[in-house]
Amino acid sequence: MSKTQILSFLLILFASCQNINPVAKTDHKELQTKQIIPIHVLDTLIAPPTIDTLDTTILIDKLLPSSYNGPKLNKALVQKVLKAHFKKKGYLVSPNEFDDLAQEYHGEIEMTFDTFYNADINHNQFPDAIVAYWLAPPMSSGHCIQPQYAIIIDQGNKYVVTNEDFIPTNFPIDSVVSRNNQTTIFACDYECANFKILRYLHLHLKSK
Fold first, then answer.
1. Which of 2, 27, 66, 160 has its Cα between 20 and 30 A from that of 111?
2. Are 151 and 129 in contact (CB under 8 A)?
3. Strand 158-162 and strand 148-155: pairing?
């Protein structure tokens, strides 16, 4: 084979390789652009919706005049008043009445104190409270069992529990502020099953 023939053969081979390589690169590039993006990555690209705030007033009724002149409300007194109230209604009272795991259960409901928030409902020298407590079978658990709420206030000659369930259990309280004869609850409307806040709440308490 002459040098001219060899050179022609090499040129043809080189041209063929040049024609093949772009096709391979194009195919690889197309495959790259068609990769599936994981769903969790897409979620991070979607901005969460704006959450609205409900600002409203709750009227607190069933209040009687007060002649109370005893100790001011504190945690110990809140628990004492709360336990006496629910024990009188027939509930078990935590933590003393159902400590034995072997105790036979007959469908009783137990009241367990959770926490309390200082409040000013009847605007006198004695503080009031918003109290959170649990009503559930003894030793029950579950993330959607939420505390209930009531008001502890001085009326007559003692502190009493009143306005049970004045807000629903899906309104978990963040804080309570009393200022200028007005008590405001800062909370949210919580959809427990989906771990979702539906709206924020500013609840102003007003006594009738």
1. 66
2. yes
3. antiparallel
